[in-house]
Amino acid sequence: MDAARKYAAEFIGTGFLLATVVGSGIMAERLAGGNVAVALLGNTIPTGAILVVLITMLGPISGAHFNPAVTFAFWLRREIAARESLIYIAVQVAGGLAGVWAAHVMFEEEVFQASTKIRAGGAQWFAEIVATFGLVFTIFMTLKANPKAVATGVGLYITAAYWFTASTSFANPAVTVARAFSDTFAGIRPIDMPWFIMAQFVGAAFAFAICRWLLTGGEEISEAG
């Protein structure tokens, strides 16, 4: 039963995250009058805010990963078993898709879509390495410094990373998969998706290595974010 609650929390949390990312993107684009900067700001603030809420609520149940790259990083630390990590990733992807479809229904969009938004090239892929490195680095280092601040730290980091990364900081393979099925402001072409995902796992692995070096001999990290 404890495992089922963890998986449900990951499904629900990732679902609400994607409903927010895609839903706020649709709303922002409709209200921005063609101003892409305003639309991006309207997409950024809700995403950072919902992360604070979701991590605060669901962290005590599942660790509030909502992100296969984060789960992968904690697996590298041997803080989650391989089988459990694979189930986490599966429910994160499923939850993300459910969140996208919920957003489409709410905004009277066609439910099942494939994105045509181009997000490709070396700069985009490098941006995803940087974005995911920064996210995992924020989680691990904040857990060491002040575990109660993880939700705020992650929310603020993603809010900033939307603007300082060329890719607008997907930093999450489940988010990437789900956004490939939304031909809206937040979308990404399915053909571009694998490169983003590979970059995200590279960034997570790099962050794990750097944090292990920085925190050697220190207090063990024991909770995801």
List keywords for this structure.
single chain; 225 residues; mainly alpha; Glycerol uptake facilitator protein; globular; disordered C terminus
Tell me briefly what this model is.
This protein is mainly α and 225 residues long. It has helices spanning 2-31, 36-62, 68-76, 82-106, 122-145, 150-164, 173-179, 193-214. It has one domain (2-214): Glycerol uptake facilitator protein.
| Major sheet attributes | none
Percent helix, as a range, is over 70%
Number of strands: 0
Task: Return the CATH topology.
Answer: Glycerol uptake facilitator protein
User: Over all CA atoms, what is the radius of gyration?
Assistant: 16 Å
Overall mean confidence score, pLDDT: 95
Structural class: mainly alpha
What's the N-to-C terminus distance? 22 Å
Strand content is under 5%
User: Tell me, what is the CATH class?
Assistant: Mainly Alpha
CATH H-level homologous superfamily name = Glycerol uptake facilitator protein
Q: How many structural domains can be distinguished in the coordinates?
A: 1
Description:
This protein has 225 residues and is mainly α. It has one domain (2-214): Glycerol uptake facilitator protein. Helices cover 71% and strands 0% of the residues. The chain has helices at 2-31, 36-62, 68-76, 82-106, 122-145, 150-164, 173-179, 193-214. Helix 1 packs antiparallel against helix 2 and helix 1 packs across helix 7. The longest helix has 30 residues, at 2-31. The radius of gyration is 16 Å and the shape is globular. Residues 218-225 have low confidence and may be disordered.
